Amino acid sequence: MSISVRGIAKNFGRFQALKNVDLEIPAGQLVALLGPSGSGKTTLLRIIAGLEFADSGAVEFGGKDMTGRSARERHVGFVFQHYALFRHMTVFENIAFGLRVRARPFRPSKEQIRAKVHELLGLIQLQNQAGRYPSQLSGGQRQRVALARALAVEPSVLLLDEPFGALDAKVRQELRRWLRHLHDEVHITSVFVTHDQEEALELADLVAVMNEGRIKQVGSPDEVYNRPASSFVYNFLGNVNLFHGRVQEGKTYIHDQGTGQAIFVRPHLLEITRQPNGGNHFRAVTKHINAAGPLVKVEALTDWGAIVRVELSQAQFRALQLAKDEVVFITPREAAVFDKDLRRNS
Amino acid sequence: MPWASKAPGATTPATSEPAFVRWLLIGTALLFLAIFLFLPLGVVFSTALGDGVRMYLQTFHDPDTIAAIRLTLLAAGFAVPLNMVFGIAAAWAIGKFDFAGKSLLITLIDLPFSVSPVVSGLIYVLLFGLQGLLGPWLIAHNIRIIFAVPGIVLATIFVTFPFVARELLPMVQGQGNDEEEAALTLGASGWQTFFRVTLPNVKWALIYGVILCNARAMGEFGAVSVVSGHIRGLTDTMPLHIEVLYNDYQFVPAFAVASLLALLALLTLVVKGAVEWKSQEPGSRVASEREMDT
Prior knowledge:
- The structure holds two protein chains of two kinds.
- By secondary structure, chain A is an alpha+beta fold.
- Chain A contains eleven helices and 18 strands.
- Chain A has helices at 41-49, 71-74, 91-100, 110-123, 139-152, 169-186, 197-203, 221-226, 231-236, 314-320, 339-345, and strands at residues 3-12, 15-25, 30-34, 56-61, 64-65, 76-79, 157-161, 189-194, 206-211, 214-219, 241-248, 251-254, 261-265, 270-273, 282-290, 295-302, 307-313, 327-332.
- In chain A, strand 11 and strand 12 (251-254) form a beta hairpin.
- The longest helix of chain A is centred in the middle third of the chain and has 18 residues, at 169-186.
- The radius of gyration of chain A is 25 Å and the shape is elongated.
- Chain B is an all-alpha fold.
- The A-B interface holds A 49-51, 70-72, 74-78, 80, 82, 84-90, 97-98, 101-102, 133-136, 146, 149-150, 152-153 and B 178-179, 181-189, 192, 196-197, 200-201, 203, 282-285, 287-288, 290-292.
C-alpha cells in the first residue's frame, strides 16, 4: 500500500521537529528515512504509524486519509528500536499477541494462530525458541521476534525505527541482508529510520535524506549518492574534504582556504603522487597513515594548514611506499560544487 | 605487576576485613536481632501459651475477640481492594502521562506516611465528629461515622493509602511506554493493553504492595484508636482489643490475640519472600531487567 505524507508539521514545545514535510512512498518499496539525530526522522515515522499526531498536514495510506486515525486503526506493523517485546510472554505468545487481541468475529482459531506463528517462526529461523522469554534471547533474535510479531497481523505497511541500531556490527550486517531478502519475498511497503548512510544505501529502494525537520532529497541510493542535491546530502552520505577554489574545463583548481567557491571531494577521489603532475595539484605533508582495512587512509597537512583525508587502495599504497612526514602532491579527480554554496561563499 | 606479590593474602578481595572484625559485626547484628526481634516474638508466643493450649484456644471463643477479628478483616477487606485500585490508577497516571500537578500528586500520596497516625485519626474526628465540620448534618441524617465501623474503615484506608502506589510507581516509570505502544499498533484496545501488557508487567510489585498494605491495615493502631471509641465487641479491632485485654490484666488472652497478629506478620514475610523468589524467574521483571542492563 502506498503512503503519502503531505505538509506535515510538528512542534514539541518550541522545538520544530518537522517543517512542512511531503513524501510519497510507492507501494511495495523499501524506503529509508536517513538523517542525523534530531532531524525529525523518527517523529515522521511515528506520525505515519499514528503513535504521534502532526500539528498540521495529512497522512494517506493507499489514497485513504489516515490523519485522524489511531495507531490501532491504521493497521501498521511497527518495529521499535529497543524491540519492545512483551517481557512476560514467550516468543510464541509475543508473535500471537496481535491475532489474539482481535475482536471475536475476526479472531483466527487456536489452530490457525498456532500455524501462523509457526510459519513466522520458520521465517525468522527461531523454530526452537518458541517457549523462550525475550530476556533469554540475543539482541538479533529479539529484533527478529519483534519483526515476526509485527508481520503476524499482516499489516498494510511495515515501519521500523532504527531496527539495527542496538546491535553489534556483525549481527547488523546479517540482519540487514536478511531483511532485504524478506522484503523481496513479502513485498510489503516498508519504511525504516536510520542514521547510518551505509545501511540506507545498501538496503533501501528509495532514500529520503532528512535534516533539521525537512526532507532534503528523495531518490534511489544511486541518485542521492552520485547526484546529491545539496552540500548537506553530499556531506552526510560519505566522508568529504572541503576545499575552496575554482572549476575550469572539468578540472578542479584548489587555492588557499577561504577564497573562491566551496568544492567537495571524497577521500577516494583524491590522487596522491610523489611528483607534481599537471596544473591542478597541491602540495601537502603526510601526517598520519592507517593501513588497516581494505583502503589505506592517509591524513595530510596542506600548505594553508588544513587536514586533507585521502583514501587509496593497498596496491597503490604499496607502489608509492608512503611514510609519515613526506611531501606529496594531491590531485582531485572529481569534485562536487553546489550552486547554493557558491552564492553563500562569493 | 611487581607489587602484586607483596600484597598479603592475594586471594582475599581488597575490601575484605580481618576475621575478628567480620565476626564482631555479624555478632552485633545477630545480638541486635535477637534482643529486638526474636525475644519479643518468643515472649508473645510463650505468654500466649503459658496456661496451656486449651486456655489459648479459649480466647478465640470469646465473642468480643471474635468481633475484633471480624472488624479487622472487614477494615482490611475494604482498605486493600480500594487502595489497590487507587494505587494502580495513580501509578498509571503518574508513570505514563504528563500533566500539571503531577509532583503535587506524588507528594500527596506520601502524606499518610509523613503524618502521625494519631493526627490522621483526629482529621476524621474533626471532620465527622459531633463537634466536627459535617457532624451536625450527619446526626440530622442519623449517619454515624466516628465511634463506629465506617470511621475505622476510613482511617484504615487513609493510613494504608500509599503502599500499592509507592510499590508500583518506580516500576511503571522505569518501563516506559514502548510495550504499550507496541500493543496498540498490534490492534489491542486500551483495556486489552492494560490487562495483557501493563498489569502483568507490574504483577509482582502489585502483589508485594498488596501484602504490605494488608499487613498495615490489620496492624494499624494509632489512627483507628482515635476514631474507634473502644466499644467492646463493636468498634475494637484486633490491635485495640489487645490493648483493652492487657489493661484488664488478662495477659493470656491479650497475648493470644497478639500471637495471631504476629502469625500474620510471619505469614506476610513468607509470602513476601516467595514473591521475591518467584519474581526472579525468567519472564518476570527482575530477570528481564537484569538482562536488559547487559
